Amino acid sequence: MKKIYLTSLIIIAGLAFYACNSSNENTSKVSESLVGDWKVQWITYPDQSAPSNDSINYTMNGEMNILGNGKITINAFGYKNCIFGTDTLIHTLNWEVPSDTILNLTNDGDKYGIPYTIIELAENKVKLQLVEDVYLFLTK
């Protein structure tokens, strides 16, 4: 009886180790794919129930430099009537991939950060979703 119990425990521990190791390999591959210089376009879509305003622009261009050391620098090029802002912003944050579908950005000392859902990941193209209606399209 003890032998069956011990064998079962070893099998369960082995499966748990394999699952954790497989997940770490996936997040490592995602992280490696994200490193580099990217052109970025932020896009949002107007709420269908809101009144139409043709003077508002729903896109913004920018750049991201994602480094292998866990740092990311974001340049966002705002302009007049841009829904995201009128100023050009440059900000350096920390980044991590806690799962193969999440890119999390944090300031130093921030425990929670800003999670981006990874919708699509290819060699030269990434699609991220920030909130329900804000998307980021990254291209190399």
From TrEMBL:
Print the keywords alphabetically.
Signal
Signal peptide limits: 1-18
Superkingdom per UniProt: Bacteria
Q: What is this protein called?
A: Lipocalin-like domain-containing protein
Query: Which organism is this protein's natural source?
Result: Reichenbachiella faecimaris
